[in-house]
Write a structure and sequence with these properties.
Number of domains: 1
CATH superfamily: ACP-like
Helix content: 40-55%
Number of helices: 4
Order of helices and strands: HHHH
Strand content: under 5%
Largest sheet: none
Shape: globular
Radius of gyration: 12 Å
CATH topology: Non-ribosomal Peptide Synthetase Peptidyl Carrier Protein, Chain A
Number of strands: 0
CATH architecture: Orthogonal Bundle
Structural class: mainly alpha
C-alpha cells in the first residue's frame, strides 16, 4: 500500500502541476482539498478525471468527493476498495 500511496502522490503532483512540491511534502494524512496545499474544487475536478482515466474508479458526488479527498491515504483506500487489483 505504501508503494501505491507514493505512486498516487506523484500522479497528484503531475496532474495538478504542483511546482516546488515533492511526494515527501505530501503527508499521507494531510488534507488535500482545502488544506495547506490550497487545492480547490477545480483541482478536485482534475483529480476526479485523472482517477477515472488512470484507475477506472468514479467519484460521482460531492459527499463522496469530500470523504475521498480528505487525504492521500483516504484516496488510496477508496481506489483500493473499488479496484483491489490496482493497488497490489
Amino acid at each position: 500500500m505504501n508503494d501505491f500511496i507514493a505512486q498516487l502522490k506523484k500522479k497528484i503532483i503531475k496532474t495538478l502541476e504542483l511546482e516546488d512540491i515533492t511526494p515527501d511534502d505530501l503527508g499521507d494524512d494531510d488534507r488535500l482539498i482545502g488544506g495547506e496545499l490550497g487545492l480547490d474544487s477545480i483541482d478536485a475536478l482534475e483529480l476526479v478525471m485523472m482517477i477515472e482515466s488512470d484507475y477506472g474508479v468514479k467519484i460521482d458526488n460531492k459527499e463522496l468527493g469530500e470523504k475521498v479527498f480528505s487525504s492521500v491515504r483516504a484516496l488510496a483506500d477508496y481506489i483500493k476498495k473499488s479496484k483491489p487489483e490496482i493497488a497490489n
